[in-house]
TrEMBL record:
Main location (coarse class): cytoplasm
Keywords for the protein's UniProt record, in alphabetical order: Amino-acid biosynthesis, Aromatic amino acid biosynthesis, Cobalt, Cytoplasm, Lyase, Metal-binding, NAD, Nucleotide-binding, Zinc
Organism from which the protein derives: Salinisphaera dokdonensis CL-ES53
Pfam families xref list: DHQ_synthase (PF01761), DHQS_C (PF24621)
Subcellular location: Cytoplasm
Keyword Acyltransferase part of the UniProt annotation: no
Protein name as catalogued: 3-dehydroquinate synthase
Function, in words: Catalyzes the conversion of 3-deoxy-D-arabino-heptulosonate 7-phosphate (DAHP) to dehydroquinate (DHQ).
Note on cofactor: Binds 1 divalent metal cation per subunit. Can use either Co(2+) or Zn(2+).
Length: 367
């Protein structure tokens, strides 16, 4: 879904009068034209964290200050702060600063900042505009696109939130230079996910190019982000509120979210939990006869090549993981629905997995 069918042009998420562009290029965050048309009013609050702020808020604020009144809010860093308490800090700043409905939030950071700041934008005075400036690979390929915003609850990931689309996504590949290796790998989990659920050619390409991707060659990074965002934009445009195919973007997440909650938010990164979760989903699919051993091994090889885990910690308690999985948002009429591969490049949402899920959990956990 590119503008003018030009592969170099911005991608567009087609959602009628809430459509927006995803710009992917080096140097975007420091250019005032990047923000043009995406910000309607004069006042802008840049929401960032204590790690990303010192690195990039200067460039972002300087670019915005050419045509806006800009202020900054710096939040603590970490998944454990993706909470209602942190959200309240954003409301406090907006209210104390008398921000009106024409204000815009700029979310400068990874998926945690994007999700919290996006939810603040969704809910402050019943909704204000926001711009996503994603600074992790994960946020550039996934979380900044599609409008899922929210915070965690002790009993489940992303349990409180809203759909609220940004007015623009600015994926500046230069900022990935400072991203730690573990965080880069975590982003690759969501990239591999697109290959597994709907793009076999992309999976083949990732398999063939993983070393160069890990070396962060700029032209490969742009291709990784562009192909990932193109997949996500297509799914979101077809099913914004997840009444159908958008649930496929949850491959590995029912298992992974349970791991994140059980381990304590922030112990395993989201992408790490999703990687192990996708291997567990592959195991369930194999037990249903949908994948064969060779396909499961191939999936694990690609995940290992991306420096990601292929299994959860064994010492977790199976019953507790199963209980957490049972609170997944894909539960319908009391039955958990799972996203499972039918092939590499194809997946379905199903509740017809019988006792294969229990068999998978028995394989992965001792207790
Ligand atoms: N809304 C969605 O559709 C969606 C999709 C996928 C994931 N998520 C959510 O996103 C979150 C994970 O996001 P994440 O992986 O970006 O984690 P994150 O936001 O915690 O960022 C990872 C770490 O990298 C640091 N960082 C960010 N950019 C940096 C940079 N350029 N240089 C150096 N350090 C940098 C951050 O400060 C943080 O310590 C989870 O909460 C997950 O649930 C949401
Ligand atoms: O955009 C989506 O839809 C996704 O499911 C993307 C996921 O990678 C992301 O982790 C999302 O936050 C999960 O959503 P949830 O509804 O399962 O909490
Ligand atoms: Zn995810």
């Amino acid at each position: 879904m590119t503008r003018d069918n030009d592969p170099q042009a911005a991608l567009r998420v087609d959602l009628g009068n809430r459509s927006y562009d995803i710009d992917i290029a080096p140097g975007l965050i420091g250019q005032s034209r990047s923000y043009a048309d995406a910000i309607r009013g004069e006042r802008v609050l840049v929401v960032t964290n204590e790690t990303v702020g010192p690195l990039y808020v200067g460039a972002v604020s300087a670019a915005l200050a050419e045509s806006h009144q800009v202020d900054t809010l710096v939040l603590p860093d970490g998944e454990q702060y993706k909470t209602l308490d942190t959200l309240e800090k954003i409301y406090d700043r907006l209210l104390e600063g008398s921000y009106g409905r024409d204000a815009t939030i700029v979310a400068l950071g990874g998926g945690v900042i994007g999700d919290i700041a996006g939810f603040a934008a969704a809910s402050y005075q019943r909704g204000i505009d926001f711009v996503q400036v994603p600074t992790t690979l994960l946020a550039q390929v996934d979380s900044s696109v599609g409008g899922k915003t929210g915070v965690n609850h002790a009993l489940g990931k992303n349990m409180i939130g809203a759909f609220h689309q940004p007015t623009r996504v600015l994926a500046d590949v230069d900022v990935l230079e400072t991203l730690p290796a573990r965080e880069f790998a975590a982003g690759m989990a969501e990239v591999i996910k697109y290959g597994l659920i709907r793009d076999a050619a992309f999976f083949d390409w990732l398999e063939a190019n993983m070393d160069a991707i890990n070396a962060r060659k700029p032209e490969l990074l742009i291709e990784v982000i562009r192909r990932s965002c193109a997949n996500k934009a297509e799914v979101v445009a077809a099913d914004e509120r997840e009444s159908g195919q958008r649930a496929l973007l949850n491959l590995g997440h029912t298992y992974g979210h349970a791991l994140e909650a059980e381990l304590g938010y922030g112990q395993w990164l989201h992408g790490e939990a999703v990687a192990a979760g996708m291997c567990m989903a592959a195991d369930t699919a194999r037990r249903l006869g949908w994948l064969d051993d060779a396909q499961c091994e191939r999936i694990e090889r690609v995940i290992v090549a991306a420096n990601l885990p292929v299994a959860p910690p064994r010492e977790l308690e199976r019953a507790r993981i199963r209980a957490l999985m049972g609170r997944d948002k894909k539960v319908e009429a009391g039955t958990l629905r799972l996203v499972l591969m039918r092939d590499i490049g194809s997946a379905v949402v199903t509740s017809d997995y019988g006792d294969t899920l229990d068999a998978t959990l028995t394989r992965y956990f001792d207790r």
